Amino acid sequence: MKFIIGGAFQGKTHYAEEKYGISPDEWADGQDCSRNEIYHSRGVMHFHQFVNRSLQNGDNLENFADELLAKNPDIIIVSNELGYGIVPADNFDRRFREADGRICTEIASRADEVIRIVCGIPVVIKKV
After folding, report:
1. Structural domain harbouring 102
2. Average pLDDT of the chain?
3. Which residues, listed in sequence order, are joined to residue 43 by a DSSP beta bridge?
4. Nearest to 41 by CA among 33, 53, 31, 50
5. How many separate domains does the chain show?
6. How confident is the model at residue 45 (pLDDT cuts 50, 70, 90)?
7. Is the N or the C terminus of the chain less surrounded, counting Cβ atoms within 10 Å?
8. Spatial distance between the Cα atoms of 5 and 13, rounded to a whole number of angstroms
9. How many Å is the Cα radius of gyration of the chain?
10. Distance CA 44, CA 104 (A)
11. Closest CA to 46 of 30, 32, 62, 34
12. Which pLDDT does position 88 carry in this prediction?
C-alpha cells in the first residue's frame, strides 16, 4: 500500500499517476465511490472525502485500514492533509477531522511508502 498526502492542490494525484503509471480510469474517487470500488481500484483519490461521506452515513471505519490492506494491498491512496488550521466550531467537522486523522495514521502505519507532496515536490516520509 502506498499513501500520498499533502495540502489541497499540491499535485498529489498527478505525482501518483506519473510515479506509478496510473491512468485516469484506474482511480476510485472518494467523492462518490463505494467501499467496494476502493477494494477493487488501483488507487483512490480524495480519500478524505470518502471518510467524510462514510461518517455522514454512519458507517463504521474502525477497522477500515486492516480491511483495505487485506482486500487491496497494492492500492495507492491519495488524501488531503487535514488538521493544520483552526479547530472547526461545528461538532461534525471536528469529529470528521479527528476520524480522518486516526484513519490516515492507521493507513500510514501499514503502508510500505508514505509520501508528502509540498508544492509539487515529493518528500518521502516512509519507505520500507
Report:
1. 2-127
2. 95
3. 27, 76
4. 33
5. 1
6. very high
7. C
8. 10
9. 14
10. 13
11. 30
12. 82
Decide if 99 contacts 51 (C-beta within 8 A).
yes
In the prediction, which pLDDT does 87 show?
82
Average pLDDT of 59-82? 95
Q: CATH number for the domain including 108?
A: 3.40.50.300
In this structure, the number of other CB atoms found within 10 A of the CB of residue 114 comes to 22
| Measured distance CA(101)–CA(61) in Å, rounded | 12
Measured between alpha carbons, how far is 108 from 113 in angstroms, rounded to an integer? 8
Residue 78's DSSP bridge partners are: 4
User: Among 110, 102, 60, 65, which residue's Cα sits nearest to residue 82?
Assistant: 102
> Considering only CA atoms, which of 128, 3, 124, 18 is closest in space to residue 72?
3
3-state secondary structure of 72: coil
pLDDT at 85 over 90: no
